[in-house]
Specification:
Blueprint (H helix, E strand, L loop, with lengths): L1 E5 L3 E7 L5 E2 L3 H14 L5 E6 L7 E2 L1 H6 L4 H19 L4 E5 L2 E3 L1 H7 L3 E5 L3 E3 L11 H4 L5 H10 L2 E3 H7 L4 E3 L4 H13 L3 H13 L5 H17 L2 H12 L1
Parallel strand pairs: 2-4, 3-5, 4-6, 6-8, 7-9, 8-11
Antiparallel strand pairs: 1-2, 9-10
């Protein structure tokens, strides 16, 4: 249980918070730390970000947030998510997200900042934030789908399949779930075979020409989550989610 780093030319960072990979407050900085450590290792050429269990990531642990006093957990989660998403984006080498099952909320923040996505044929992607009384990661969803679809997904909380994202070019490859990790490593091996100095500079160059500052954009979104908590809407939505479960 937790976040695990397996070092090597193709490093693996694996998320493992059973039963559904709803990541607790302490889990987000752990993801950030392991991704950053992997990229900082001069032996690393590619990082594969994967998960154990039924799904890649169910987002933040809403139940933990409701159990915590005041806004301490919310503040820790928001800072942790920002750090984890930024670590994927800023990682010195390409990051390949290997997505199984569901990828929701904070999971979108992780994969939206990844360099490539390989997905299982059962994978679905979505932002249920509106139903949870929060906002955020539309910045990252906008990197995966066209603008008006992004808006529709935010407002309705509908999900989209890996096959649909593959048609947009957002998902590099869709494979049977049993083959997911091998398929991600195969793409990683193709990149790892290139000159590592050139690949690291390519990552830096591609980040430098991005039209949107993803870190600042995401923090702007988070400001509305704070507002929703101050006016009580956030707590109402989270309480309903916990009670319905």
């Amino acid at each position: 249980m937790g976040v695990h780093l397996k070092r090597g030319p193709i490093a693996e960072v694996v998320i493992d918070f059973p039963p559904v990979n709803a990541v607790p407050a302490a889990g987000w900085p752990a993801i950030a730390g392991e991704v950053t450590a992997a990229g900082a290792d001069p032996e690393t050429r590619v990082v594969v970000l994967a998960a154990e269990g039924r799904g890649f990531c169910a987002g933040v642990d809403i139940k933990e947030m409701q159990r915590g006093p005041g806004h301490e957990v919310l503040l820790a989660v928001n800072r942790g998510c920002a750090a984890a998403f930024a670590a994927v984006y800023d990682c010195a080498v390409p990051v390949i997200a290997a997505v199984n099952g569901f990828c929701l909320g904070g999971g979108i923040g992780l994969v939206g900042n990844a360099d490539l996505i390989v997905a299982a044929d059962d994978a679905t992607f979505g932002l249920p934030e509106v139903d949870r009384g929060a906002l955020g990661a539309a910045t990252h969803l906008a990197r995966l789908v066209p603008h008006h679809l992004m808006r529709a997904m935010v407002y309705t909380c509908r999900t989209i399949t890996a096959a649909e994202l593959h048609r947009f070019g957002s998902v590099h490859e869709v494979v049977p779930a049993a083959d997911l990790r091998d398929a991600a490593r195969a793409v990683a091996a193709e990149i790892a075979a290139k000159d590592p100095v050139v690949i690291r500079r390519a990552k830096e160059a591609l980040n430098g020409i991005d039209p949107v500052d993803v870190k600042r954009s995401y923090r702007f979104e988070q400001g509305f989550t704070y507002e929703l908590n101050l006016n009580g809407a956030g707590d109402r939505a989270r309480r309903k989610f916990v009670e319905d479960r």
